[in-house]
Design a protein that fits this description.
about 325 residues, alpha/beta, TIM Barrel, 6-stranded parallel sheet, 3-stranded parallel sheet, 12 helices, globular, binds zinc ion
């Protein structure tokens, strides 16, 4: 049993998994992902379903089911090294058995289109975290863009979006506001009855992008007992992104701590460079001087220690680092799942 928990609140694993298994690869998680997770000391993760634009709308449902199916199939080959968790107790059992624990989230409700009853199906299959939108519009609401764009008047949550929020809370799913636009965020604040999270969003005060949270958003999430997960993508850390360092990432976490209190700060690294190996997914493109604009601030889960060092330099105590790396998620999961 590991002494310490290390939980990543956001990783687009399932899309990659479905693609790799579709190419004929077997036992993908144990052989291709767990070594890096273990090297960083990770014990659990919230793994996302993500649907690329090119599959929407017609293939959205099919792809989401395929991604979950891939997880179930891969588990049969995994020699018991990991398991799917639907409750905190499931995670606790994994932990005691030395197994890695995965929770499933849905990054955007696009796969449901406007069919509320499908939410129960995904709940039964194990989805416990629901991002209402990705950075695009769907039946639930408007996503925020990665940077300001010319657009018409924006909306908040639709009537379907509010019905979805209510139903998700009734089922026992956690709402995730990362990728929502400001109007949608405020609607969640007005209508949510339970704590919600921003699984992978940084501070807009330190990096101006619609994908990051305003101070008042961070305060609101803390007030209702939610969590904010720092995102390791340089484009959400510093401008110009090519100058962002791991210390700059730690500054976002320190800013959240100062504003919200340490108990609400977590990690949602959003490592997605690996997706490029799999698919022509629409990541912000590389431009200028051969320097990739989109870059991750540490090279995957195995480099967690580099973040720990930067956080110590930003005056986090070892106890506070434990909270950010895992304890805060554990407390939240224990109370709400
Ligand atoms: Zn995302």
């Amino acid at each position: 049993m590991p002494n310490r928990d290390r939980i990543d609140g956001h990783f687009d694993l399932l899309m990659s998994l479905e693609h790799r298994r579709g190419m004929g690869q077997k036992n993908v998680i144990e052989t291709q992902f767990l070594p890096s997770f273990r090297a960083g000391g990770f014990t659990g993760m919230i793994a996302s379903i993500f649907i690329e634009d090119r599959f929407l709308p017609e293939m959205g449902l099919r792809k989401a089911l395929d991604q979950i199916g891939s997880l179930y199939e891969d588990r049969q080959e995994s020699h018991g090294t990991w398991d799917l968790c639907k409750t905190y107790l499931d995670y606790e059992r994994c932990r005691q058995a030395g197994r890695f624990g995965f929770f499933i989230s849905m990054e955007g409700a696009d796969s449901l289109m406007n069919d509320l009853s499908l939410l129960s199906v995904f709940y039964e299959l194990g989805v416990r975290f629901l991002g209402l939108v990705w950075s695009r519009r769907n039946y639930a609401g408007d996503g925020c863009h990665f940077k300001p764009v010319l657009e018409g008047r924006k909306g908040g949550l639709t009537d379907f979006g509010l019905a979805l929020l209510k139903k998700a809370e009734e089922l026992g799913m956690i709402i995730d506001v990362s990728h929502l636009n400001d109007e949608g965020f405020e609607d969640v604040c007005a209508f949510a009855q339970k704590p919600f999270i921003a699984s992978h969003s940084n501070c807009r005060a330190l990096m101006e992008t619609p994908r990051n949270l305003r101070d008042k958003d961070i305060l609101r999430i803390a007030e209702i007992g939610g969590l904010i997960g720092g995102n390791a993508a340089n484009i959400f850390i510093k401008n110009p992104p090519c100058e962002a360092t791991v210390r700059d990432f730690a500054k976002h976490l320190a800013y959240m701590k100062q504003l919200a209190g340490i108990d609400h700060v977590t990690l949602g690294f959003d490592f997605c460079i690996h997706l490029r190996e799999d698919s022509p997914v629409s990541l912000p493109s590389d431009v200028g001087n051969g320097i990739p604009v989109f870059r991750e601030i540490i090279d995957g889960h195995s480099e967690l220690q580099r973040l720990e060092e930067a956080m110590l330099e930003e005056s986090f105590s070892p106890e506070e680092i434990e909270k950010v790396f895992g304890e805060n998620y554990l407390r939240f999961l224990c109370s709400h799942l």
